[in-house]
Amino acid sequence: MLFLLSPVKDWYPTCDRVFSFVIRADDEMAARGLAAAKAGEEGREAWLDLSKTHCRELSLNGQPGILCRDLSTTWRPYPENRFKTKK
Fold first, then answer.
1. Which residues partner with 23 through β-bridges?
2. Verdict on whether the full-model pTM lies above 0.70
3. Under 8 Å CB-to-CB from 50, ≥6 apart: which residues?
4. d(Cα 1, Cα 41) in Å, to the nearest integer?
5. Is 12 helix (H, G, I), strand (E, B) or coil?
6. Both ends of the chain: CA-CA distance in Å?
């Protein structure tokens, strides 16, 4: 079976966190366990917690193509004055 795992809500901050996995496993709990083993700063518990992450079975049928591309650039904090207006 093939599974797509992703967070229920985006992680914050975004730096060094995994935002999705496409995993081949026998069942959802096995897929979650594999994801937990390769977690980033979000922590392994996030991938095991059904309230924090989605796990959806994907069909093996379909057209050839990319199944998952999860791009996250380095997180940069906003400047402290980003909401200040100039006088």
1. 3
2. yes
3. none
4. 27
5. coil
6. 60
pLDDT digits (tens, 9 = 90+) for 35-76: 999 999 999 999 999 999 999 999 888 888 877 777 666 655
What is the C-alpha to C-alpha distance for residues 3 and 31, in angstroms, rounded to an integer? Answer: 7
Task: Spell out the domain ranges in the chain.
Answer: 2-58
Number of H helices, E strands in the chain: 2, 3
What is the CA angle 68-16-65, rounded to 5?
10
- Nearest Cα neighbor of 11 from 38, 41, 54 is 41
Quick one: the chain helix, strand, coil %, rounded to 5? Answer: 15, 20, 65
* Whole-angstrom distance, CA of residue 22 vs CA of residue 12: 21
- Binning pLDDT at 50, 70 and 90, where does residue 78 land? low
